[in-house]
Amino acid sequence: MRSMASSTSTRGIAAIVGVGPKLGRSIARKFAHEGYTVAILARDLGRLSLFADEIAREEKAQVFAIRIDCSESRSVREAFEGVLSLGFVEVLVYNAYQPLSNSNWLPTNFSDIRVDSFEKSLAVSSVGAFHCAQQVLPGMVERGRGTILFTGCSASLNGMAGFSELCCGKFALRALSQCLAREFQPLGVHVAHVVIDGVIGPPRFQPSTSQRTLVGEQQSGGGDGSMDPDALAQTYWHLHVQNQTAWTQEIDLRPSNPRFFYCN
Fold first, then answer.
1. Is 152 helix (H, G, I), strand (E, B) or coil?
2. φ, ψ for residue 37 (rounded to 5)?
3. Are 137 and 189 in contact (CB under 8 A)?
4. What's the pLDDT at 218?
């Protein structure tokens, strides 16, 4: 675990699992901006540490980079030993996914999909989410508060020819979200599933907190039909701070000129 710290947070821990250069990083930055100590988790610790340094510097926050392989239960347990040592995990965002064996996001003939690739996708998309949720739910239930947000995509809702490995994992993640919501929302834990129905592009503004989108401020969409990860991160934040009398269980987000899929 590597710490990139610059101040002490007065809030709980926000654990963001599956942090890449787009959505995951934007969500982490948003929660850091709002005063949370943030733990960011992914497989590539070198890149993750650079993100942690960047966010800590920009937001004057504590950000910890922790390696995790969501397809391995032991790795999840070890990673969350580090996360839980930081304090009470108030927010869990599960944004991990397994890239398709076809790196160009083109359909793959069913007969060409390898069993190990299919199993790895299921492990990362759903089994990893199961393990991560089990790590943080006891503390949330004990305190009667907490938020768990799962990132889905178009494949969470519709089976598509040539995308069996992605769809099956994302279908299972959506089911897990619904099961956890029905079990734990009466105990004070908000569980929601966020369907990203589009392609995520780079942030509209490069790192400069004075230029970032303010809450409620409207920005023009990308000309290529992509989605702004900073704008998406605002929705994750709004879900976390929703009033308990009107919680969202599932929300779908798409650009005005939609395309297909997402990449974190």
1. strand
2. -75, 130
3. yes
4. 39
